[in-house]
Structure formats: structure tokens, C-alpha cells
Amino acid sequence: MPFCLKGQDEEPQDEYDQIPFGLKWRMYWGKKDTDPRTGEAVLRLGNNKILKTHCANTEYQALMLIDRQTSVPSYKVLAVYNRPEGKLVEYEAYPGRPLQERWSSIPAHQQNKIVSQLGRFVEQLRKMQPPKQCVVGDATLGAALDHRFGSGRIGPFFSIEAFQEFERRGHTVDDFPEKEIQMVHAPKKPYQLKFTHASLCPRNILVDDAGRVTALVGWESAGWYPEYWEYTQMCHMTPKTMGDWLDAMCRVVPRYEQELACEEALRSRYTGSIYDAPRSVRAPSPTPSQQQADQQAIEDKNTSDTSG
């Protein structure tokens, strides 16, 4: 038997990514820390570099997309490594404190500046063009990770109507007495698809001492949603103590009051955790053939000028 220097625990070359020696050295000397916003463990490598383990692909894929197509300030993805313990992602992280901690102490003129900046950022996101029409999903049109719907991933949905039907737990619109649900979820109501942060709230906005937004964080739920989703999510996720911030934001982003009332009615009926359970027996989950037919219908709608 030939002599072999390889260790028995060496990783398969074709399965996992090798970590560069320079990064290994920085990891050795890195400082273990906890993200105060999420409680997530991070490794600070110096020079505004951080390393995340077990990182959701929905987050770094969204960040790479907005980095290519917008000037919205956010963490920059430097490298992604497929490791045995999960995805290892190196970011360039920009300094700043959550707006939720600083808003009350910021002068009025700086508050106005921050709100104006956020309005421009949302406008940029909404101008992005989806790679395929009608598909509701994450940045790559895969399954989305939105904690509004429990702990699991959802979708993708091959129409906005299918997404809304999922929100209703499979029940028809006529099963709901609320007029807001009946109007917003009316069949074939013409909503557009927009790229959405989906967690735009003060704890996910970092600002510096000069009243400048340094980064938007918390992109794990971002993706392509109905045009009203940014507004309704923002309203639900903003603390009651920051009502003045929400009022100011409502002047710089499109408002959807009827859709907000619809969401409130649905949330009062269904908590997030209920979406982890099977759908209603009154309207069972679609069969594979039905899902394939829905997907084919959307593929037919997408013209040659899209990536699909």
C-alpha cells in the first residue's frame, strides 16, 4: 500500500469549499461577538469585516442582487463558502447603531434627512425588474423565508393569487366576511411584483452620528412580493413607540391602507406559527400536477426579454 499523508478527516474536494489560509488566520485572531439586533453569533475580523455561520442563502443572495442593481447601503458580500456546518459568509459590515435606539435623540432636521434617504432607497428597490413576471419568492425566485409565516420557507408561488390563497390557508375569498379581504384578494386584481426588503423597520436601519443611514440590514426575508408588502410589513414591524417615524415614512413610500386592513384581518385569524401546520382540509394543498400546470402557465407568460 502506498504511503499517504492525507488525514482521515480531510474534506472531500468536490463537496466543500476550502477556506483560504489568509481567512483562516483572520478567523483565528477574530473576535467572537453577538449581533445585538438578532442575537446571532458573528466573528469580527477587523477592518469592518465580519463572518457569519449558518447564514441563510436568502440573505446573501438578496444582498448580492441589490449591490449589483442599486446604491442602497447594505453589507457587502465578499465571499461565500459551503462548509460542513453550513454556509460561511464573509461580509464587509458598515458601522452604525440601530435607528430604534437613537431616533428620539436625533434632531428634527436629521430625522427628516434619514426619512428622505429611506424613501429614495425604497424607490430604488421598487424600480428593480423581476427576472420573471408574477413569481413570488426570494431574490432568486426560490422559496422565501418570511417569519410572518412561521419558521419554514414558503413558495415560490407562480402568481400573486396563489400567494394570497396561501395567506388564506387555502380558503376561498367568500369564506371571509371582511370586505378588505374580499377586495384585496379579489380574483385577478392587478397587483405588480416589487422587490421588497420585507423587514423595513427601525431595528434594521443603521445610522451614524451625523444622521446618515449607513446600512439597511436584516435582508433574510427579502424577495419579490406584491407591491403592497413593503408597506404592510413596515407598519406591523414598527414599534408603537416609534409612531412618529412611521408617520414620516408614510409620506415618502407608497401607502396601501386597504391592503393593510386586509393584512390585519388575516393576522387576527392566523398567527405565524399556524403556517407551519398542514393547510385546511377544506382546501387541500395543490397536487403536483396542479403545481406543474401553474408553473407552466407563468413560463408561458414570460417573454424572451426576461431571464426565464
Describe the structure concisely.
This protein is 33% helix and 16% strand.
Please give a structural write-up.
With 308 residues, the chain is of the alpha+beta class. The protein has two domains: 72 residues, Phosphorylase Kinase, domain 1 (2-Layer Sandwich), CATH 3.30.200; 205 residues, Aminoglycoside phosphotransferase (APH), C-terminal lobe (Aminoglycoside 3'-phosphotransferase, Chain: A, domain 2, Alpha-Beta Complex), CATH 3.90.1200. The chain is 33% helix and 16% strand. The protein has a five-stranded antiparallel β-sheet with strand order 1-2-3-5-4, with helices on both faces. The longest helix has 20 residues. The N terminus and C terminus are likely disordered.
Keyword list:
Phosphorylase Kinase, domain 1; three-stranded antiparallel β-sheet; disordered N terminus; 2 domains; alpha+beta; five-stranded antiparallel β-sheet; 33% helix; globular; 308 residues; Aminoglycoside 3'-phosphotransferase, Chain: A, domain 2; disordered C terminus; single chain
Summarize the SSE layout with pairings:
Elements: H1 21-29, E1 31-34, E2 41-46, E3 49-52, H2 57-69, E4 76-83, E5 86-92, E6 97-98, H3 99-102, H4 108-127, E7 137-138, H5 160-167, H6 179-184, E8 193-196, E9 205-207, E10 213-216, E11 223-226, H7 229-237, H8 243-249, H9 257-269, H10 288-301
Q: Structural class given helices, strands, pairing?
A: alpha+beta
Strand content: 15-25%
Q: Which CATH-level-2 architecture of the largest domain?
A: Alpha-Beta Complex
How many individual helices?
10
CATH class wording of the largest domain: Alpha Beta
Radius of gyration: 22 Å
